[in-house]
Amino acid sequence: MARPFILSLSMLFLASACFAFSFSTFNFNKCQLDSLNALEPDQRVESEGGVIETYNSQHPELQCAGVTVSKHTLYRNGLHLPSYSPYPKLIHVIQGQGAFGLAVPGCPETFEEPAEGSSRKGRQQHVQDSHQKIRQFTQGDVILIPPGIPYWTFNTGDEPLIAVSLLYTSSIHNNLDQSPRVFYLGGNPDIENPETTKEQPQQQKRGGGRKQQQEEEEEEAGSVLSGFSKHFLAQSFNIDEDLAEKLRSPEDDRKQIVKVEGGLSIISPMGQEQQQQEEEKEDEDEDEPRSRCGRSHQGKHSHEEGEEKEEEEEEPHSPCPRRPSHGKHKVEEEEEKEEEGPEHKSRERRWKKKIQPAKPEEGGEEKEEEEEEEEYETKHSRRKEHGNGIEESICTVKLHESISRPSRADFYNPKAGRISTLNSATFPALTPFGLSAQYVVLYKNGIYAPHWNQNANSVIYVIRGQGKVRVVNNTGDAVFDRVLKRGQLLVVPQNFVVAEQASEEGFEYVVFKTNEMATTTHMKQVFRAIPAEVLANTYNLRQSQVRELKYLGNQGPLVNPDSQ
Hints:
The chain is built from 15 helices and 25 strands. The chain is of the alpha+beta class. It has 5 domains: 1-26; 32-221 and 254-258, Jelly Rolls; 268-322, no CATH class; 341-399, no CATH class; 403-563, Jelly Rolls (Sandwich).
């Protein structure tokens, strides 16, 4: 079994390499650019819960890099409906916080509501919700969405959630053309990239008439389920036709981003933490002292010593947080159960039986619970011995990482700024998808000295401030030499030399790169790596000038002319 698997994997790798070569050849001619342009959004789709802005994928610069870009703004309680695309997506969170979830085929639903009732029959009558893992993110995080995997996003904060996304349309994982496509599972989404649909009526012109063209142009977009009849959906999912019609969303005008009144009710550990924080605030308003037993694992409780007399009167033999009768301690108890695992849950069930003996008429149910418990422990032990490991690898892989924290800086100059890099070495999930990112903050008048990307095209998106950017091609011509402002993006082709200088207000931007291990070469490093005699003959320099070029000034790429 191992040899066929390795052989098939090798064939897949070779096919991917050939496909990548064909794509690189296809894009090569489009990258012979005499000038570059700062791009701004061309299309805007407004929904009740937010706004989606997209950049025209037909721009030569974007076609050169084989990417498209979009910007999503989710208002408070905004939910971006589940969707998927045939290419990987890299998202940088500019503002706000939220949660996202994926529906990965083959992965278990590891988040579930606690079962209610003591008997098997009772649990069957009430179905608890369960779903796959929910991930929380915040400002400065980079999120990776694998191709073909449905995902959704929700704004959990009070301020708008703003994120910019790079869609790698020329990835080897995309077996379609380079046109951006988003497949929504529900709703009536508007077309986000209308430039890709204008070519279709022209191609169908011979088969249909002018009237057919107009009908097709006026037709609104829909979800993937809207293309099936309600009768077929009812048969496929074994549901009634009224529910099947709901799946088709025929009269839903909320588009891509909907507003969830009252917030989204999902199973998430963050919900318990927020509830605990609210209860802590209520306790801080009270004048009664709290005991050390009320502290949480994160150390957020007060360190003051004391005793809660009321709690002691209610339960004098349990002064610490394992008392299920109090709301705050119950939350902490559930957190402890999650940390200690299923074995602890089994012990907890036995503990509850001791303090809550069954009534005479419930003896049969207690016996049934003991049998279920023994069966569960047997299955759990077998899973530990013979588990396939999927739950601990693919299904739990980390898909988001912070890039904007100052502590992550790879280059830092207190007068000039800092640079942070995110690649497959620091974020392994990027490895199969050929993407990486860089985060740059330039302080007032700070300079990011000339450099180039050895093995990737790059896309600069300005988050805050503005700066002067110059890009030079192989003939020494400046193909871009202008100010780049907030909300604009600039494509820098592979090996084109680029340099940036911040304005008086500073310059903050993110750089998406089309290689999972993108390598940046800084001109200063090149000078130091070349022998003095070679530099002297290359630039016709004196030895004193060579020493000044190689060894004086900063060794790194960040400088500030005001401090020199």
